[in-house]
Amino acid sequence: MASNEHSWNEERNELLREKEALAERFLSAEQKLKATEEELRTAANQLQARDETILQLQKTLEKKGKDISGLQERLCCLQTEEKGKAWKEPCELLEDNVVDLKDQLESKLKINRDSENESAMEKKAHIAAGDSTLNLVDHEGGEDDLDAESYPGGRSEEVDRETKAKAFVWCQEFLSGSWKTIPEAHFQITVVSGGLSNLLYMCTLSDHVQCVGDEPRRVLLRIYGAIRHNRVDSRSLADEAAGGEDSSLVTFDSLMENVMFAILAERTLGPKLYGTFPQGRLEQHIPNSLMRTEQFSDPSISAEIATQMARFHTMVMPFNKEPKWLFETLDTYMDKVMKLKFEREAQVKKFKKLLKFDLPAELERLRELLAATPSPVVFCHNDMNSGNILCLDGQDPASTERLRLIDFEYSSYNYRGFDFGNHFCEWMYDYTYNQWPFFKATPDNYPTREQQLNFIRSYLAEQGGYPDNTTQEDQTRIQEEMLIEANRYALASHFFWGLWSVIQARISKIEFGYLNYALSRFYSYVRLKKLFT
User: DSSP letter string over 431-442?
Assistant: First the structure.
């Protein structure tokens, strides 16, 4: 009997303990439930507040929409009234203000609806993707671009009679073997597209002509454009339309470029130089396939371009080592641009849009920014776009020697960051587009942060990597500093080629939408400046 009583007591105590444990678990669950209910109430309040904010923004947008309609009606009245040219500029400014106001309101509403979790570094990875106020039609051509009417069938592929005759004489004078004796009927010349500074032609012996020595069967003829290296031609812009070649084009800069060309050819870093004359030169034709802009995003191609750039930067050349080229050229171009006048209506309209950027003041701000941005001085190419990088024929796809740099007319001692930033900008531009304005800008193609780091790491690897005892933390810091260096100097690239293109629009004979291109570069400058200043 006593044994049974003891057993019951044990069972009763066990049940009591289980009851206490269950009570504690229930209390804990009840507390968690209360906390969850509190969190749900908080989230509901936040959601309600956001809905109220969105509703308020929608009401504001509605009200502003009415204001915009009123402005548009007033603009329509102004445009239809025949008050002469005095009304044209106010109407354009009013139209720009209406578009800007509408875009800003729509953008603000979208931001409140979308997720706000994108980090600052992710934004830098989409450097060129976002300014809703940018109207691509303005600078890439469109129905309202009057210049497009002049090129309904795309680029001209014909070589005029005068150019063919001059090319034939130059080839006979500077080349050996069969070139000396062939009649002009056995001489062939075709246009090579893609050059924005110079006119390029391929000169070839007819198939039935036999070589008598080691003379080349084909050569590249480069006829210099109006802008030569760091100067504008000695012909005044006002007299440019008179045409004709001028022996005054032989300058110190042309001489230095030919010296550089010969040195690079001797080092097998560039094509051979067959002949040079005041109007241009004859170069070796290197068998190659066209480098396409979209290939820049191929990690292996990008890494090899970085390697080629690193090798170029290590060269020692017999030129002035002071980094004067960039801002001396920018100052020269700025002076020319501010004195330019255009006559055709389409060009006048685009030039007025460019002047709204307040270019002289912006150049001073850029000068101050780059003065505060460390960048070593090296021998830079300064123009590494897709047209100046050859994909060599007959190379193993796995080879790291598939590419060759060409066209050194802008090369000089300069800040390393300019070569980085300039090449990154070129990821956005396709110059093979065969309709007006003969280029296509794709801002989304600007390299992401990871793509830029891949380039920088390949560059550093070719130059020997990091100093001994460099910690991982120091390596990361060096890479981050180079990212800032590259993207700030990309601003200089946009500014440089923007000014260059405005001058080209006035004096160049090459078929290209130079003012459209200038607008594209300065719009990109504004977007990039917001992220890296």
Answer: TT--STTS-EE-
